[in-house]
User: Fold these one by one.
Assistant:
Number 1:
Amino acid sequence: MNPLPVQRAHELHSASPETRWLIESLWADQAVGIVGGEPKCCKSFLVLDMAIAVASGSPCLRHFPVPRKGRVLLYAAEDALHVVRSRLEGICSHLQLDLAALDIHVITAPSLWLDSELDQKRLLDTIDRLRPRLLLLDPFVRLHRIDENLSSEVARILGYLRQLQRQFQLAVVLVHHARKAARHLRAGQALRGSSEFHAWGDSNLYLRRRDEHLSLTIEHRAAPGKADLPLVLQGTDDLLALCLAQQPPAPVQPRNSAEVQLLRALGEADVPVRFSVLQKQCRIRTETFCKLLVHMQAQGKILKTAQGYRLTATPASASRSL
């Protein structure tokens, strides 16, 4: 007999707040998950930005801090190696970083099949040798020969990646395509193939393009997420980098204060207004309303008469001032 290892619940390792994030608010430490979106939504730019952020300790997308930098292992199955280098150098130029100084390792094998026991063993041995903090695999469709709609087949590959995460205590980012014309669906539900993809992720990032506007939705299993963060691709030619757009501040709406309501109500009246009528018009609690009347009388803005309250100024002039 070989029993499974167990441990008392209170003896389990607990992470300090600074070690709970690989990239703060964007990707949990040692999390597996999906970067998803339709084609041409800058998914590759996002994962390369994550690679540079983790390797350098610079904020991802110029916004999300990296508490502790570490080694990155990347496999880009869809892009030529010179394109990968060019994109990494473009991002580095925005951050004034030297790519040669960053601990980013790129798998150069022509193919990597996650449904192959041989390639699974080769990837495991590579991770065992390099011990990265982050593994990036882009995209899933080029990494297997299975039916993505069969949960049993998808689950075996995702289970293998979860095993890597637990064995080597690293984060795993898997790029996956969303179905076309699925914008009416929740971001995770728009992913191609089995629902296993959405359920698998501890942290998931979804990119969506509406006309010329690109947005990012963040989901976490154990932390609050964010939706529809605007992104822009900045730079020219080969020097491009994805950045979180600066959102203009929301316009400040004029505050319809109790004092303004009271002055407007009196300004619109041709005769003094009784307390009960005035309070009903202003919809203010009795205690608050009494204090307001006393305060405004002390300031000389209103007068109390036997018939009710009126403005100190004439009604016509008070109305014009409002």
Note: Residues 249-255, 314-322 have pLDDT under 50 and may be disordered.
Number 2:
Amino acid sequence: MTVILDVTGVAKKLGRQKVLRDVTLACAAGESVAVYGGNGAGKSTLLQIIAGVLVPDRGAVTLCGESIIGRHVRGRRRMGYVPEAANPPDHLTVSELLAVTSSLKQAAAVSAEVRTLIGIDAFAHKSIGQLSLGERRRACLAAALVGEPALLVLDEPTNGLDASGVDMLVGVLKQHCELDGAVLLATHDRSFAKAIGAMELELAEGVVRAT
């Protein structure tokens, strides 16, 4: 089985707190991995390191065999990331957000089929600042899918979504894995993780373990 994401021995200190001590995990093609943990356990910090928002103090992160630690790493184009806040610049419209993402990734825009599946056409002309959290999540998910990424990284992806939104997300993530993509998510929503068939890991005391 092809390994899409490989995280080895990652450690991160924020201020005086050792948030991550020795995190090791992998995510293969066609696989979803859900990371659980209490508030402050370091789930968002871990995802931010994988997405390139933060740099680890120690450890390695590879995507499709290529290191993605450091600035200006081209390999991160093969990743789509939706942070917990889902807060791109307020002044951009949804269509502008997708266009900017396509330009930065040097990739084709998401298809009309994907836009319809995610349900963004009704508010594509609106600015991000006018949207509800659920609508922002849909817009950011569409942006994350630009360029048909190998890996989707999602932080608390069901926050703000109604039942139809959660159903949509389950369908999108299952389809992504059926096409040999991989999904890594941090969540408190165990029923959602089970719905997408995710392998479950627990982050506590700076390390991850199988639940």
Note: The longest helix spans residues 163-178.
Number 3:
Amino acid sequence: MNINPIKIALIQTSCSEDKDLNIKKTLKFAKESAKNGAKIICTQELFATQYFCQSEDYKYFQFAEQIDGPTVKQFQIFSRQNKVVSIVSIFEKRARGLYHNTAVVVDADGSIAGIYRKMHIPDDPLYYEKFYFTPGDLGYKVHNTKYGKIGVLICWDQWYPEAARLTALEGSDIIFYPTAIGWHPSEKARFGQDQSNAWETIQRSHAIANGCFVASCNRIGLEIPSDGNGIEFWGQSFISDPFGRILAKASNDKDQTLIADIDFNMIDQTRTNWPFLRDRRIDSYHKLTSRWLDF
């Protein structure tokens, strides 16, 4: 059911090499968010560790956990005690040799409302995720929670309008994007502003096109792998309403909990006045399942 309006929170932090410390830090911010009235709280992508995908190294598989592992269990206790919904990003060990980049949705009673496994897996300089993660096989889903119907997509998924559309069509009122994205320091001066602008713009466009709220939770800090290169994560977590307006936005360099009020009534109002879903020509979209259209 929807309890309207509600507060949602995004937890944006830097990460150390100490996994336990990162988890404690995020839980501390989550507890503060709950005290400030937040009912749905989202962590950033792979918050328990630094972004290890900057290099291909088998040692990092030690960070993986099963769904019922210690990280999710801690958030189940937190959610139950504080009566909040938590979106928990983990490096999932599904089976021996089978790993995913996964978000676990924990309901306000501590039960697991659903899981989402990242569908689009990048392989770019310093984003070598194909080495670690199997593409998701659960599709795009809505998770029914005490405080509403929510969807979760993860980082690279945020560039794909098809993913946002299908998640919205499943009934999601809010699409959360746990994220780890940043600048290559050598490129920042030339391309940095354009890159972060594009990142924000594409997600705000998903909110507009689908008439739903979008909440993107990024990390901060410069993380440098052993080869000397690194990523400066640009933070700037934000929450957008269905009209694409920014309700709240975080800094690019500070640990921060971002909270905004969500009025679910706006979804119906926006979709009624801008009826994109009504006017879709579903009979004409079959070619979208093609890799490329050769003439």
Note: The mean pLDDT is 96.
